[in-house]
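Today's session is about reading a structure prediction critically. Students often jump straight to the picture, but the first step is always the sequence itself: look for stretches that repeat, for charged clusters, for runs of hydrophobic residues. Only then move on to the predicted structure, which in these notes is written as discrete structure tokens rather than atom positions. Here is the chain we will use throughout the hour.
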Amino acid sequence: MNKLFAHHRLVSALLMFACGLFSLSVAAKPQLPDNLQWLTNDEDPVFASDKAIKGGTIHDWLPSFPLTLRTVGPDSNGSFRPNIHGNQMQLVNTHPDTGKLIPGLATHWAYGDDQKTMYFKLNPQARWSDGKPVTPEDFAFTLDFMRSKEIVAPWYNNFFTTEVDKVIIFDDHTLAISSTKPRPQDELHVYTSENTRPIPRHFYKSLKGFVKKYNWKVVPNTGPYQISKIKKGKSITFKRKKDWWAADLKYYKNRFNVDKVKFTVIRDRNLAWEYFRKGKLDVFDLTLPLYWHEKARGDIFDKGYVHKLWFYTESPQASQGIWLNQDNEILKDKNVRLGIAHAFNIGKVNEQVLRGDYVLKNSISSGFGDFTNKDIRARKFDLAKADEYFSKAGWGQRGPDGIRVKDGKRLSLTTTYGYEAHTPRLVVLKEEFKRAGVEIKLRKLDGAASFKSVREKKHDIWWGALIGGRWPQYWGQFHSDNAHKPQTNNFTNTDDPQMDRLIGAFKSSTNTEQRVQLAHQIQQLIHDQSAWIAGLDVPYVRNAYWRWVRFPEVPGTRLLGSRAPYVFDYNGAFDVSDGGQLWIDPEIKKETLAARKQGKAFAPVTRIDTTYKVE
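Below is the predicted structure for this chain, in token form.
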């Protein structure tokens, strides 16, 4: 009886379907919009040299061994992580000289009408280092991975929920990635390509116990190098892939030339310098004036075995300066803040401590091209002007020791900072402030403790900087949503309705020209309020290198500093975005070592390259 009843139900259903009374629900395959304009770029200049030679090993150093090879989760946010990220390709890259998009994992891209979505065509040749093809499913897995609680990474959980919406798969080589909100076209790729890089679905069988299970796993990547040897606590070696899938593509040809990069752990910088002088390291950073002017001297430089390079870039600069906490009773008064600005003798610090090497900063958003308000000029050191503003604020009188007094209180403030190397700079500033009648006490903490203290707003003045991305960011530092509360980056406790309106408009605008105008207005208002006071820019990289290390005629790129801090560290040498330009010449190395043994000299070389210097 039950079988007969089931048979009658099936027959009835088929008759109803045939008559159109109901339809079966089948998930429709996503369809590409008809109006997409597919773009690519094979017209921009190459930035590698056709003189490059493959082979050799670059020897570099690490001050400590990484705590993990994971790039997310506990202990992953260390200085070694960029070396791993640098070998994971994006769908599209930014040309490091023109700023235009160029192919990466994708050959073509397109923009959706919603201003939230980018469409991509994967290069069919794209491969993981284990030979598996890169697929759209790997990008879909990125969202699953980054949203998983198993990775123990709350920031990534939040970002890939609130900023990245979804991945849409159309076929084996076509996908789209959507942001959660409309964005300017020239910023959309940051969310859909730069941040949403593929993660190999086939490698991660399960994320259960991720932190411990994958702590020392070498994950397949898509770039030119892969970790080949690990000596715990001692060294890590990367090896160039012999069959890297992108090796002959226009923007990647003649790059990533050395066969290996070996990082040796040397826990003291002075000892690392001695390793370099003996030829056990190939390159060394000379950004600190002490190294460029004093240590980089002697036989190996005089005889031309080692060269020096000072290379200017045009990259976004950190917001270095002093941040005045306006919740402090003294610093609430704008006239006091203006007095401090005119008593802030950063020029003397630059000349007396830093040999005049750094550049006096004007705007909080310097180095951002059109987004930088170049009409703003930092207030000059002027004791008369400082006295005028302090007097307006009621601090006209001075005590027996020269420090200003008001209602029985001294004009005394504490400056918090986090690096011992900055102490000589702050000692000079302290004495200059004393001339203006301001007592500055120095509060030295380690880097992490310093930053924690100012995030909790337990400071009067913070000497420090925030490093941003390719476009200015203001909401975290200056919007009232982040004022008067701990664990935010509004270190000045700025709480101003006009600022909020401008920042809100800047965040919501999708028109680049309008965003530029709003950025200029915000920078002007920050300057006018004088709660952040401009410090110094370092728009260059400086290095020493043995003469067998070679590079193109222009030894770097315009935007080098935005992704790679030095011309010759692992990022600068090998980062897929803009690195990998150097090579080792075996004949020159042989010649140099023989000459050194025989005492033969070459012409000394100190090169200052101003190709991309911003005047």
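Discussion point for the tutorial: The radius of gyration is 28 Å.
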